[in-house]
Specification:
single chain, 280 residues, alpha/beta, Rossmann fold, 6 strands, 43% helix, globular
Length: 280
């Protein structure tokens, strides 16, 4: 439903055509929030759809706070590095690029000029960055992937954990989100007697140390030396050396609130900028 441009439902697939048209006609500078997720292994304890479930919760909250329409073009993302674990589905880079561009072009044809992206899966970013560059020129639309807030107390805590423990996948950070958003899908008992399975070359591990005297360069050397597929360096699919059982759902509650508000504030401020000539 949309009345004079004000939505009370935010998913495109839940709106009638007249409701979407009402929003397009009456919402000043309408914005589509486009979510990208993945279906891929998330260790022994989290569901395969963790990234997509997280993304759907996040972008719906952004839509509510900014009166934006939400679109999730696919639950599947770009996850070839997780294919060593059963249950993972990945699009090829060509297919995924096509999915994103076809979604943008369809809505651009109907008059949408602004797209803001949220991805629950970092592996989608190389394809998304290319898609945004192509879409800006080919379809004359404004596209952006907002990032933040980085300076908040919770944001710093999460980033420090990622650096110190390599907590990048299925660790404390993602488990906190899952236990908050869909605890009924988590099987924490599978972590009984858990020990870190992350296997890293000793030299690379030395460079991963945040206290390394040349930490900025060393971290990039460690990233450059990372093996190409998850199963090469962890037998249980969990990145990181910290215990996922230390997850804190309430920490994620704060992070989700501040991140959704950040996106909402970004969208509201973005709408005050007229569409530049190059996009008309």
């Amino acid at each position: 439903m949309s009345e004079n441009g004000k939505l009370n439902r935010y998913w495109l697939h839940e709106l009638t055509r007249p409701a979407f048209e009402d929003w397009l006609e009456n919402e000043p500078e309408p914005v589509i929030v486009l979510g990208l997720g993945a279906i891929e292994q998330h260790g022994p304890h989290l569901p395969l759809g963790t990234d997509s479930l997280d993304t759907m919760s996040m972008i719906e909250e952004i839509g509510k706070r900014s009166n934006s329409v939400c679109v999730m073009p696919s639950w599947v993302g770009y996850s070839p590095h997780h294919m060593g674990f059963k249950g993972t589905i990945t699009f090829s880079e060509e297919t995924y690029l096509g999915v994103i561009l076809d979604t943008i072009s369809s809505l651009a044809e109907h008059g949408v000029k602004r797209f803001v992206f949220y991805s629950g899966h970092g592996g989608n970013m190389p394809v998304l960055n290319l898609a945004m560059q192509i879409a800006r020129r080919k379809f004359q639309v404004m596209c952006y992937y907002a990032m933040g807030p980085r300076g908040s107390e919770v944001g710093r805590k999460i980033m420090e954990r990622m650096v110190k423990y390599n907590d990048l996948h299925s660790g404390v950070n993602e488990t906190s989100a899952a236990l908050k958003l869909f605890p009924e899908l988590c099987e924490m008992w599978r972590l009984d007697d858990w020990e870190p399975m992350l296997k890293v070359d000793p030299k690379v591990k030395e460079y991963m140390d945040p206290d390394h005297p040349e930490s900025e360069i060393a971290k990039q050397v460690a990233d450059a030396s990372r093996e190409p597929s998850t199963h090469h360096f962890t037998s249980d699919g969990i990145y990181g050396t910290n215990d996922p059982r230390a997850a804190d759902p309430e920490e994620y509650t704060k992070r989700m609130d501040e991140r959704a508000q950040y996106y909402s504030d970004f969208i509201k401020l973005w709408k005050t900028v007229p569409v530049p000539k190059g996009y008309r």
